[in-house]
From TrEMBL:
Gene3D superfamilies: Chorismate mutase. The lineage of its organism: Bacteria, Pseudomonadati, Pseudomonadota, Alphaproteobacteria, Rhodobacterales. Its EC number is 5.4.99.5. One of its GO terms (biological process) is chorismate metabolic process. This is chorismate mutase.
Length: 100
């Protein structure tokens, strides 16, 4: 990967952004696998998909990480709240299935 300052034209810049986007998608897919496993464990242990204390813990962690990296904590929180909503919905699907 080139540093942004080393991109000399829009084609180079766009190529780097596209590479980052592909990596983000791969990372999100890995995270989704962890969410699926969480649903299995929650079903086994009788836990709800939505645990508000954990949601706020994750959001707080993300805000701190973003701030430490010089990224807007508000942006990170908004993105993660959407990701969390999606994750809870995905878990609820698994929790409502009758398969053991």
């Amino acid at each position: 990967m080139r540093e942004p300052k080393d991109c000399e034209n829009m084609e180079q810049l766009r190529a780097e952004i596209d590479t980052l986007d592909a990596e983000l998608i791969k990372t999100l897919r890995i995270r989704a696998r962890y969410i699926d496993r969480a649903a299995e464990i929650k079903k086994r242990d009788g836990l709800a998909a939505n645990i508000p204390v954990r949601v706020e813990e994750v959001v707080g962690n993300v805000r701190r990480l973003a701030e430490g990296e010089g990224l807007s904590p508000d942006l990170a929180e908004n993105l993660w709240r959407e990701l969390i909503r999606w994750s809870i919905a995905r878990e609820e699907v698994h929790l409502n299935t009758t398969k053991e």
